Amino acid sequence: xxxxxxxxxxxxxxxxxxxxxxxxxxxxxxxxxxxxxxxxxxxxxxxxxxxxxxxxxxxxxxxxxxxxxxxxxxxxxxxxxxxxxxxxxxxxxxxxxxxxxxxxxxxxxxxxxxxxxxxxxxxxxxxxxxxxxxxxxxxxxxxxxxxxx
Length: 149
Description:
mainly alpha, elongated
């Protein structure tokens, strides 16, 4: 009985509170935002000018960066009360990453119409993700669709 209580207690302290979670993940997101700050700069203009193939590498780099961030966020212990909410949030982020990969491939293949549809879907996914974690007061871990489209 004592071993079970100790194991439960250590898990609870590892998961902590919502504030503990935010404290753990914000530096991960901040580092990623700083590292990827200029990755998508100019992509929108390239697409508007019809230079789709030139825009593709930047979008694919952004997708790779988001994939890495999700990989670093996924193992962070979640507060038990927010576990489902954070799982949904990461699911929306993964959908956004999937869309970025598709968008990059569509840009490379010069399929502008499908790129615009994916950009719209990406904005919706980011809004859904942010709505799920609105009470977390994230600064850097909020998905900012303006960076992607």
